[in-house]
Amino acid sequence: MDKKRGAVRVHPSRPVTPVAPPTTRRGAEHHKVDLKGHSESWLRNHIAVCKAALTKLLGTPVATMMTVAVLAIALTLPGFLFTVLSNVQSLTEGWEGETRLSLYLETSLGDEDADRFSRSLLLRDDIAAVDYISRNQGMREFKKYSGFGDVLDALTDNPLPAVVVLLPRSRAVADLGLMRASFEAMPEVNEAVLDLEWLQRLDAMLAVAKRGVFVLGLLLGLAVLLVIGNTIKMSIESRRDEIVVSKLVGATDAWVRRPFLYTGVWYGLLGALCAWLVIQVAWLMLETPAQELTQLYRSQFQLTGLGVSGSSLLLLSSVLLGWLGAWIAVRRHLRDIEPS
Fold it and tell me: Where in the numbering of this chain does the FtsX extracellular domain appear (predicted)?
């Protein structure tokens, strides 16, 4: 007995075995994704987008190197000036160990009176040490180090005054100023000079220079921001059709924005690395002349470059500027690209 469509053909010699109908699933299936799987998927996507952004930059080496060169120049100038000021400041800090006050005595004062005056200063509680330099001793040292010995020998009188060098116990600026004023009021003293006054002026100039470098860094940082933003804008315009298609298939703004943000980060990182390399080469060129100069002054000072902290600050600030410039450009121009 035969039956059509769905019936079972029965033969007397065979037992009948029921056949279960095939299970066919239709429609979407629901899968539960845990937090770990979501995190791994998010990380894989970011790594893939980061690699793709670098590959795209390397695919246009000329345009990429031109942009990176502009960024490197803008980052090199404030970084180099910052290291110069740091070296000058560290050099002046080594000279502030002992503050000395030099008293130039009246030329009419005899050697015995000048020596007696210097001995009387030892009785003062605010003075730690006194060094007396007579007129003849000062002339001998001046002939030795000035190179004008023949000219000075032709003089009939010694024009140099006796000098008393004092080491004050206090290093406060206010106390030193009062001490200097009190010594200048004495009849034996022609002039009182604080040896570190020029260092104080230098510190004031360094403070102004630091503020100027900070302002210059802000301006050049703004230039880096604008350069990266304009570059990302051009990249967005060149990929307008791709962005439209991505939004048509349901891509979110965050997904579309991600490649451009990584492009900005790569621009900032490459620019910072080139700037760091230029600064290091500049310091290598200055190292030998600086050592020769310090040897002439019998100093142990050595030039220091950016160091770990300066290099880290340069890299982090450049990467942050790259990301921020890309984010501003994408936020401004991405909203204008919508599927019609």
Answer: 101-191
Amino acid symbol at 160: L
Q: What is the pLDDT of residue 25?
A: 52
The whole-angstrom separation of Cα 67 and Cα 57 is 11
How far is residue 319's CA from residue 306's CA, in Å, rounded to a whole number?
17
Quote the Cα angle for 125-166-295, to 5°: 140
Over its C-alpha atoms, the chain yields an Rg (Å, rounded) of: 40
Q: Give the CATH number of domain 101-195.
A: 3.30.70.3040
**Crossing angle, helix 197-238 and helix 61-93, to 10 degrees?**
170
Task: Provide CATH 3.30.70.3040 ranges for the chain.
Answer: 101-195
* Predicted confidence (pLDDT) per residue in 60-72, tens digit: 889 899 999 999 9
Q: For residues 75 and 220, is the Cβ–Cβ distance under 8 A?
A: yes
What whole-number distance in Å separates Cα of residue 159 and Cα of residue 138?
10
List the beta strands (DSSP E) in 161-294: 163-168, 189-194
